[in-house]
Design a protein that fits this description.
Elements (H helix, E strand, L loop, with lengths): L3 H16 L16 E5 L6 H4 L5 E5 H6 L8 H11 L3 H14 L6 H9 L3
Antiparallel strand pairs: 1-2
Helix pairs in contact: 1-6
The chain binds zinc ion (ZN).
Zinc ion (ZN) binds next to strand 2 and helix 3.
Length: 120
């Protein structure tokens, strides 16, 4: 059974995948050939950005976690690619995540999920 946060994050992933046309933003693979994941930039443990579609990109399974140069297996190289692809986006996300961490407010994940569902 998924908890409220996970269910909310799932909706944010869906929004991000629709925005990216279910196409890997790194290699261009589509869901016809590979599984497309909603991949977090700031880790999902940061509540301030966990369910923010801006913090999620569509990646194929290879670019996300399976491949030798994937985000999970070579995060430094991946970070360089991300900064080149989306200049300044990492810093903006990091700022948002840190701001929340410094001043945490309780998140009503069910309410946030309802709000995100409005974008679908
Ligand atoms: Zn890919």
């Amino acid at each position: 059974m998924k908890n409220a946060k996970t269910k909310c994050v799932d909706v944010a992933k869906k929004i991000a995948k629709i925005r990216d046309n279910y196409t890997c933003v790194k290699c261009g693979a589509t869901r016809e050939t590979r599984q497309i994941h909603g991949a977090h930039i700031m880790p999902v443990t940061y509540n301030g950005t966990a369910a923010d579609p801006e913090n999620i990109i569509a990646l194929c399974s290879t670019c996300h976690s399976m491949g030798r140069t994937s985000a999970h297996q070579d995060p430094i190289q991946f970070g360089r690619w991300f900064e080149e692809m989306y200049p300044g986006r990492y810093d903006a996300l990091n700022e948002k995540a840190q701001k929340y961490t410094k001043n945490p407010v309780k998140i009503d994940w069910d309410e946030k999920r309802r709000e995100l569902n409005g974008f679908l």
